[in-house]
């Protein structure tokens, strides 16, 4: 059988619920076989696509014996013959990213020694690392090309110390006009390099220099930042994004485009003379205290710039620029307010904006050819959907199904190239017509190892809750057992809470299929407050993280139990992050579950202000912070920890010891209280793990967590 026939046979999975009884079931170690497409680039004439693949490889030197590997591949698109093995055309492992100029030439960001990343031409199969653009002394992060392919923009990231010393981005050798917020240092004088010699027994200036040396040696961490918690550590370092411009000729010197003590996270060519960028609002506030952003234009001829969008109320985020330069697409949102961002299209001749009337968020925005259409991906009803906007009328057309997840896409020359997740396969690359018809699969990243596996197709259900909102959920029936044998049921709850589960979600694909293979029914859904269902649905859990959403979860469970195949003495519950919050809330108010697992959760909203790096959520969801009028009472009423004395369900608690999204202290608090009360509780702390452990964390720890959850539930099966 040729590779095309093999791939088409895999597509047949989409019309069956389960493969034959002789098929192998999904195992926990199948996690190491899953490959994901993490980036996609396509050249202008659609003759070639470049895509990056993240996979798991064995590595005896790595902790746990596995590591992740991301590698770039190219795929000829005009050839009708499928490659016998799409992974044979892997590119140089030093390549960080492939980019194409509008005229079709291929370029590569290449990592060299000491983490230096530079841009190099890559027109043939051989990487030309001899040619690069001099003057860029920092790793290049983003690249943008002009419409005529003659110029490029490079973004780099600098620390505050580097920015102060930079002759490119701080040519006047200034200090920030905003306060560094170091007590006793009103003029930011401490930001200058110390002139005194380090001496622990010297005067105060020598002692200050000595202490600075200790910080450089990582003997101490000093911070004067409000937002000092990263995802897995703490830091006092401020970072800034700036841009260079350069002619694409060998030996050309780069020229700094931006400057000053604020960041420019995105920039694009608007014309051959103008560059447009989004930037932090220009105020005298510390960067940690700036929540709004503007859109600015740089004139490359006279060196001036001006703000074209910005009002101090919204965050304006540049999403896309039309090839003609006549239009830009911008996402606009109000910081720290529970609302969806809004996509607008602005005419650059008068800066009048027209909102796209669509009750979902929009990402990966791009203009179609001729400026007549706009495309974007929106999370919607359990899937990630590509939509087309007809700009002349404002009409919106969904091009893909809510039953699938489009993760990366490109449209042009009446063709679409995209990476897709389905219930049957976590990731493959596809080619289709621009309306996503006549689909052809281009890769065999996962289909080869999946062809002998029993894959369960989820069934979709909907009910209307007491608010009149339609709540969707999905059910995977177990792959083993007889028609007369009742099965255990596992309820999975997503995080967020502004997140979404569904068959288009690759992050949970393996976990669902694993538990189904172990004989569990699996139910997952999207209670009130989830994203992907519009603004009213999103806002319906304001000051209600517990009671209302738990009603939706338990109603879905009741509907499944009514099907009369579930062993109601073996109901289990698990969730991560906000899902752990809701898991704990439910078992403190409802006692039907045989056992439960809470992963990386928030249980006390008062301490969450200090323990988590996403503490601004308190203002967005509950109206303020603990010391403000009436807020403490609201937080206490909403916190599961205050109902934990009612927990009788055996509970397995997980936390990552480096998790600063929620904070390990949250798990410590819940475990210690339940342990003191003599409840059935077990606590697992994964060393070195952060909040992303179940999605992108250490592979062996991901397997460990899944197995511990399964084994804990099995202890209580009788």
Notable traits:
718 residues; alpha+beta; 8-stranded mixed β-sheet; 4-stranded antiparallel β-sheet; 14 helices; 18% helix; 32% strand; globular; disordered N terminus
What report would you give on this structure?
Strand 10 (239-247) and strand 11 form a beta hairpin. The protein has 718 residues and is α+β, with helices and mostly antiparallel strands. The strands form nine sheets. Strands 29-30-32-31-33-34-35-36 form an eight-stranded mixed sheet, with helices on both faces. The model is unreliable at 1-22 and 82-88 (pLDDT under 50). It is 18% helix and 32% strand. The protein contains 14 helices and 36 strands. Residues 175-203 are annotated as: Disordered. InterPro entries: AB_hydrolase_fold (IPR029058), Peptidase_S9_cat (IPR001375).
Strand order of the largest sheet: 29-30-32-31-33-34-35-36
In total, the number of strands is 36
Number of helices: 14
* Main beta sheet strand tally, sense and closure: 8 strands, mixed
- The average pLDDT is 91
How far the N terminus sits from the C terminus, by CA atoms, comes to 48 Å
Structural class determined from secondary elements: alpha+beta
- Identify the overall geometry: globular
Percent helix range:
10-25%
Radius of gyration of CA atoms, rounded to a whole number: 27 Å
**Which stretches of 5+ consecutive residues score pLDDT under 50?**
1-22, 82-88
Strand residue content:
25-35%
């Amino acid at each position: 059988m040729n590779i095309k026939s093999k791939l088409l046979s895999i597509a047949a999975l989409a019309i069956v619920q389960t493969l034959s009884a002789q098929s192998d079931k999904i195992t926990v170690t199948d996690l190491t076989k899953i490959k994901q497409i993490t980036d996609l680039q396509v050249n202008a004439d659609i003759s070639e696509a470049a895509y990056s693949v993240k996979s798991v490889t064995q590595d005896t030197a790595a902790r746990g014996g596995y590591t992740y590997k991301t590698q770039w591949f190219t795929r000829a698109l005009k050839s009708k013959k499928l490659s016998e093995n799409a992974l044979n055309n892997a590119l140089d492992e030093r390549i960080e990213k492939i980019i194409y100029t509008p005229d079709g030439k291929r370029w590569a960001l290449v990592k060299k020694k000491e983490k230096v990343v530079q841009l190099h031409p890559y027109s043939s199969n051989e990487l030309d690392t001899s040619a690069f653009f001099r003057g860029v002394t920092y790793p290049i992060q983003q690249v943008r090309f002009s419409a005529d392919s003659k110029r490029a923009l490079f973004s780099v990231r600098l620390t505050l110390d580097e920015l102060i010393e930079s002759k490119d981005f701080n040519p006047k050798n200034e200090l920030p006009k905003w306060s560094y917020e170091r007590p006793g240092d009103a003029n930011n004088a401490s930001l200058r390099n110390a002139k005194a010699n380090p001496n622990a027994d010297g005067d105060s200036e020598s002692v200050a220099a000595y202490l600075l040396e200790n910080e450089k040696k990582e003997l101490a961490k000093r911070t004067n930042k409000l937002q000092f918690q990263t995802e897995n550590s703490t830091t006092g370092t401020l970072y800034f994004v700036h841009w260079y411009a350069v002619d694409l000729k060998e030996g050309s010197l780069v020229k700094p485009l931006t400057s000053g003590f604020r960041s420019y996270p995105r920039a694009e060519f608007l014309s051959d003379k103008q560059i447009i960028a989004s930037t932090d609002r220009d105020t005298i506030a510390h960067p940690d205290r700036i929540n709004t952003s503007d859109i600015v234009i740089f004139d490359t001829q006279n060196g001036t710039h001006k703000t074209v969008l910005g009002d101090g109320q919204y965050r304006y985020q540049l999403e896309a620029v039309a090839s003609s330069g006549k239009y830009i697409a911008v996402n606009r949102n109000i910081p720290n307010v529970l609302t969806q961002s809004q996509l607008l299209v602005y005419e650059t001749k008068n800066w009048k904006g027209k909102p796209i009337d669509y009750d979902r968020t929009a990402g990966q925005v791009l203009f179609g050819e001729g400026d007549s259409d706009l495309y974007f991906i929106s999370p919607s009803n359990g899937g990630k959907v590509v939509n087309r906007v007809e700009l002349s009328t404002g009409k919106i057309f969904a091009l893909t199904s809510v039953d699938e997840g489009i993760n990366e896409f490109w449209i042009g020359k009446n063709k679409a190239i995209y990476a897709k997740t389905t219930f049957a396969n976590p990731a493959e690359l596809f080619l289709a017509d621009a309306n996503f018809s006549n689909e052809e699969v281009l890769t065999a990243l996962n289909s080869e190892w999946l062809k002998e596996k029993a894959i369960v197709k989820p069934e979709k259900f909907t009910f209307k809750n007491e608010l009149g909102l339609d709540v969707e959920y999905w059910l995977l029936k177990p792959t083993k057992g007889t028609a007369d044998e009742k099965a255990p049921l596992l309820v999975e709850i997503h995080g967020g809470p502004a997140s979404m589960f569904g068959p288009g979600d690759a992050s949970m694909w393996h976990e669902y299929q694993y538990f189904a293979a172990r004989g569990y029914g699996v139910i997952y859904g999207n209670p009130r407050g989830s994203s992907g269902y519009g603004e009213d649905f999103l806002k319906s859990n304001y000051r209600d993280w517990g009671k209302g959403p738990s009603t939706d979860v338990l109603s879905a469970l009741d509907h499944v139990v009514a099907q009369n195949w579930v062993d109601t003495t073996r109901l289990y519950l698990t969730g991560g992050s906000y899902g752990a919050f809701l898991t704990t809330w439910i078992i403190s108010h409802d006692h039907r579950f045989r056992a439960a697992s809470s992963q990386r959760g928030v249980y006390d909203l008062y301490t969450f202000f200090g323990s988590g790096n996403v503490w601004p959520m308190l203002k967005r969801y509950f109206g303020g912070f603990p010391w403000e009028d009436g807020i403490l009472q609201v937080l206490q009423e909403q916190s599961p920890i205050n109902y934990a004395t009612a927990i009788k369900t055996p509970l397995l608690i997980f936390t990552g010891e480096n998790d600063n999204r929620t904070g390990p202290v949250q798990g410590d608090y819940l475990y210690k209280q339940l342990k003191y009360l003599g409840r059935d509780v077990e606590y697992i702390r994964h060393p070195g793990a952060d909040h992303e452990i179940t999605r992108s964390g250490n592979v062996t720890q991901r397997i460990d967590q899944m197995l511990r959850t399964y084994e804990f539930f099995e202890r209580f099966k009788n």
